[in-house]
Amino acid sequence: PSSRAAGLLAVPPCDAPLPAPLAAFAAAGGDAGGASGFTYAAAGASGGVAEFVFRSAAAELFGVRLPADEPLAWVSGRNADVAELTLTVEGRPALRFVRAYGFRNIQNVVRRVKTGRCAYHFVELMACPAGCANGGGQPRPPPLEASGRAAAVEAALVAPGEAARRHPCDNPAVASLFREGAFLEGGPLGAAVASQLTTEFNALADEPPTEQSALGIQW
């Protein structure tokens, strides 16, 4: 690797104390197998929310428990930043998910939704091509390294043995957040989650798109 890349890899971890809710989460992790207790539904930087919702919906709505140690069968679309995932029950599609990264792909999905031609039950959108590994928070790579940087970041995020591949709700660290007196007491549908992890948006006036608005931009 270049000296710049080697320098990035050599940066020591931050030892600043975690906020109380996160410190409790980290303290609850770990198991006899040596895993840190971190939990993830998808390897890499992006897609974990979609995969968690897909696994949960399959179990809750259709009684299908998908093995946590087996990857889900995402099917790539017209480019690498579009992928679809389908759950088939009794020979018919029961759930259809899509993830689309990059503004051009986002516009295509939104256009299908607005015209009533979208058959998806869940849509995960990200503005950054290649997802979070190529996000604005990443150091800008030299031009010759740009094409492979996102893949390298994805591969470096979760080392083998560092994370326990299991359903997040089966993780004792997650359960510790929902116990009585904890930060998110009451569980995923409780009042604490509603107040701490949700927000509200104000609808804007229904005006035609302009060159300055996001809907008026052609990517």
Explain this structure to me?
There is one protein chain. Helices cover 31% and strands 13% of the residues. It is globular and about 50 Å long. Helix 2 runs antiparallel to helix 6. The protein is α/β, with parallel strands linked by helices and 219 residues long. It has a 4-stranded mixed sheet, sandwiched between helices. The two termini are 33 Å apart. The longest helix has 15 residues. The protein has 7 helices and 6 strands; from the N terminus they run ααβαβββαβαβαα.
Quick one: biggest sheet? 4 strands, mixed
Give the N-terminus to C-terminus distance in angstroms: 33 Å
Mean model confidence by pLDDT? 76
What level of helicity do the residues show? Answer: 25-40%
Principal-axes shape call: globular
Largest sheet, order of strands side by side?
Answer: 2-3-4-5
Can you tell me the residue ranges where pLDDT is under 50 for at least 5 consecutive residues?
Answer: 1-11, 30-35
Number of helices: 7
How do the SSEs run, as a string of H and E? HHEHEEEHEHEHH
Output the radius of gyration. Answer: 20 Å
Portion of residues in beta strands equals: 5-15%
Structure classification: alpha/beta
* Assembly level: single chain
Total E-strand runs:
6
